[in-house]
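Section 5.1 Outputs to date
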Amino acid sequence: MNTLQLVKEPSNNNTSKQHRPLTAIASLSLSSKTNTSANNQRVRRLLELLGSAVLLPWPAGSKGGKRKWKDRRLVDMNDPTYLAELETSGNIGVALGKRSNRLVTINIDYDHYVDVFLQANPSLAETLRTRGSRGCVIWLRFNDKYPATGKLRNLSGIRVGAWRADGKQTIIAGTHRSGMQYQFAVEKPVITINYRTIIWPKDIQPPNAIRSKKVGTEEKVAVCISDDSRQIQTYSRRPNKAADQLLSPKEVAERWSCSTETVKHRTRDGLLHPIRFNSRMIRYSLSEIIEVEAGART
């Protein structure tokens, strides 16, 4: 019986071989004063790629903390004291939305969906793209109205990513909580586009999709683009019996021929999203397990 391998994610395509760790730009041993020049270079390089953007200092291995950051503005990027804090930070995040001149990220959690999205939008293969432990982050800037922050889901309703905009931030440099370094998948400047030019493949529902009407086994989804414009996309959606089935950690481990500890590790890494009834009763959606398996085999 074949054993499912979930520790190492498969490559998307040939571009995965071109991933360059951000450590190639500047050392992340940031406690040493000897790294100040390299860290200055790191901040400058990130701003060259991002354009006008508010960078946020965070500890290594962190995706953010309780410290308030939403009062930060572009003017802070000219403050020597703030730049010095960035230079000595383990991780660097980027404030999104209007705060950074309409900068938005499309966070896709699984390599399979990265391929699907870029096949539908080949021009977006030329914008800045980064990667943590899996999937990728596509960086874009918009010159028209774009949706609010929301989750990206497949046709089964399983989360496959996120659309991050105003009020959110995304880590771009440093150390992922898994221990991996954040990498460039495509090291090119962020491109500016109109939101309505994005083509959402049928496998990925648009952010904040609104169910407007169900007709038989099909469902119409409307996405508000601007005050006077609306985009309609129709998805074929049939009942998914697997979505109603729940598996225990032991059942997932048996299905994957691994230990329950491995299931716990995958949960902590964010690969799995458990349903917690209480501290002892934890279950996993079978439909999500199937999605993870599909991504692992791609």
